[in-house]
Amino acid sequence: MSQAPGQGLYIHIPFCHQRCHFCAFYLEIHHARAAEEFVASLLTELRLYGDTGLLGPAPLDSIYFGGGTPTTLSSQQLATILATSKQMFGLTPNAEVTVEAHPGSVTRDSLAHLREAGFTRISLGAESMDQTELDRVGRPGSPMSTVQMVAASREAGFTDINLDLMYGLPGQTLESWATSLQRTMELTPTHLSCYALTVEDGTHLKAAVQRGLVPPPDEALQNAMEDLAENILSQTGYVRYEISNYCRPGFASRHNRLHWTGGHYLGVGPSAQSYVAGRRFGNVSNLSAYNTTLGSGRLPVSESDQLTPADDSCERLVFGLRLTDGVSLRETGAPSFPALTEKVDDLIADDILERNGELVRLTSRGRRYADSVAVTLLASLAE
Ligand code: SF4
Exposed (0-12), middle (13-18) or buried (19+): which is 304, by Cβ within 10 Å? Predict the structure, then answer.
């Protein structure tokens, strides 16, 4: 945990072919012409940031293409974006370069092209290995396409493969979740992200829940599913290194770790968020405004917040607590802020946190309350 976190680039591709019922991300439905205009704007944004020297001279340790569905763009467009990113910021020789993909949006040829262009890691949104569960949340694709695209990714030369899974889906049972996990294990990914379904405002799912057409997620069942995942995955050699993330030893996502260890990351693309040198800033969540702003040679930043040392320290603590190993209090700078350390002591007394020397982490009970722990710690600075 004491190793320097490095710095990364996050590239938000704001297109999907359709919107899943639970999804609240900023995105547009993909059209070829809109995609071309977006790519031109994105290249301008990368060049503007390259010229500012904001990230300093050190090359990037990771680049992450997320979305949306990055692979709605052609592999040639993705290769061009990657090449411009490398040109502007440099890349360490063994950098992690991830592309998120929907299994239905890639082919053997496009995967081979992406690998050749320099992508080192692929993250496939499987979500469930049960077709009925996918259909109930309006998720396109099939478990079979996940199986086929994992195999095709390997053939293309990807050795680092993540699969995303969701639990607490409408109609999902402990048994069907166990089956999804088992079928996923058979594909031997290097990394697995397991997310609890949440009902976000403005989604199709939220409307269905409000109209009584779909039951809201059952928290007790989701907790049981989380425990089941940890049991099954740990028995198959996966390490739970963060609340929602498991990996084979040595395959923790470097990009994700940047967020949890106070590393700098620059986000480009509509709605992308950045954290550089104690400043958080974010881009406008509107493709048209994004294009127009960059067309006039300006960066599309719509919000910016220079954190106070206390807030910066608290955020590092909050993010670091997501890691199973925990976080060094000293490295977060928390000991300089008594209100924060007093709250940490209270949470230790309540069996939510535990401390071993400088390291503090969530207890297994505390993991259930990670979000409220974050709120409590942030509020302690305002008391
Ligand atoms: S594929 Fe991902 S980003 Fe696109 S709508 Fe579905 S959940 Fe949202």
Answer: exposed
- Going from N- to C-terminal start, the domains of the chain cover 7-260, 309-380
Domain 309-380 falls in which CATH fold? Arc Repressor Mutant, subunit A (1.10.10)
Model pLDDT for residues 194-231, shown as the tens digit of each residue: 999 999 999 999 999 999 999 999 999 999 999 999 99
* Ligand 1, atom nearest to 22 Cα: 7
Instruction: Please name the residues in contact with 327: beta carbons below 8 A apart, sequence gap of 6 or more.
Output: 1, 260, 261, 316, 317, 319, 320, 321, 359, 360, 361
Q: 20 CB under 6 A from ligand 1? A: yes
How many other C-beta atoms are found inside a 10 Å radius of the C-beta of residue 277?
Answer: 11
Give the model's confidence band at 2: pLDDT under 50 very low, under 70 low, under 90 confident, else very high.
very low
Question: For the segment 82-121, what is each residue's pLDDT rounded down to a tens digit?
Answer: 999 999 999 999 999 999 999 988 999 999 999 999 999 9
Please work out whether the CB of residue 69 comes within 6 Å of at least one atom of ligand 1: yes
- Expressed in angstroms and rounded, the spacing between residue 23 Cα and the centre of ligand 1 is 6
CATH for 7-260 is: 3.20.20.70
